[in-house]
Amino acid sequence: MAVVAVSLCVLAGIVLVCELARKVILELISEKRRDLRIYTAEIISTFQLCACSHELKLLSEDAPEIALSLTYVISVTHALTFRGATGNPTATLERYWCDTLDGACALRRTACQFAASVAAGLVMRSAWALGFSDLHARHKRDGFTCESPISNVHLLEAVAVEFACAFVVHAAASFMRNVEAKYRVHAVATVITAVVYTGGSKTGAVFNPALAFSAQFPCTGSSFVKNGLVYWLGPVLGMACSLLLFNKIILPFTTKSTSYKDLNLHSVQKKKKKRN
């Protein structure tokens, strides 16, 4: 329980520091520099996401059930504190394909995300080196090394798992888009937790290229090419298929259904008027 208590304190500390940094820095930056405010929020939020994920990944070695429960809590926390940032290159790419971001802005956001993910890995190593818990001290003695979860998993299977994880999460977010925010946050967090539980043993269920670059690429047992195909290509394809499903199939179908209902209602009202 001492290990869990320390990890809880670390997670709370990361969130508090990042939230304080967001408030202070965004107060200092003029509202006229909206672009700078966006990129700053993206850097801080991605750092928060990656740093918390590093701690949860380490905690899962000793207390997997607690780490899974905390995944839900921290997912809700991220959603409530990110202030419009995505922390995920595939989400940024989705916004670009939906024409809500221009190409230059999307590239700069993605660069911020990868830079923050690298910084998070370095900062967490420094924090673990302090040896706040036996888990941290043991990880330090091992040289902060980790074993890649896809070292013994076939390439196509690993790509399929990350594809499915990204598809489900993006589909859930799209499906819940019009739901009230206070319900949507918990619904999406539940889906993320379920996805991590289902695919975590195969690939770690990362479905985020920047987070994977920080948490999985340094691990031994897998090549850079395999990691790129699994953790970059898989999530991008999953997001693209989700976008295709909702924007090209479901959305047009529901729009047609709604228009038919409106036409039928209009014709019924006209008939009633004639009778009267």
Q: What does this protein structure show overall?
A:
The protein has 276 residues and is mainly alpha-helical. It has a single domain, classed as Glycerol uptake facilitator protein, CATH 1.20.1080.10. The protein has helices spanning 2-28, 34-59, 64-81, 89-97, 103-129, 134-141, 155-175, 181-203, 209-215, 224-275. The radius of gyration is 22 Å and the shape is globular.
Overall body shape? globular
CATH superfamily label: Glycerol uptake facilitator protein
Largest beta sheet, briefly?
none
Beta-strand residue percentage? under 5%
Query: What would you report as the Rg, rounded to the nearest angstrom?
Result: 22 Å
The CATH architecture name reads Up-down Bundle
CATH topology: Glycerol uptake facilitator protein
Counting structural domains, the number is 1
Total beta strands: 0
What are the low-pLDDT stretches, counting only 5+ consecutive residues below 50? 257-263
How would the blueprint of this fold be written?
Layout: H1 2-28, H2 34-59, H3 64-81, H4 89-97, H5 103-129, H6 134-141, H7 155-175, H8 181-203, H9 209-215, H10 224-275
InterPro entries: AQP11/12_channel, Aquaporin-like, Aquaporin_11, Aquaporin_11/12, MIP
Subcellular location: Membrane
Pfam families: MIP (PF00230)
Offer a quick outline of the entry.
The chain has 276 residues and is mainly alpha-helical. The chain has helices spanning 2-28, 34-59, 64-81, 89-97, 103-129, 134-141, 155-175, 181-203, 209-215, 224-275.
Defining traits:
transmembrane helix; Aquaporin_11; membrane; 0% strand; Glycerol uptake facilitator protein; mainly alpha; transmembrane; Aquaporin_11/12; 276 residues; single chain
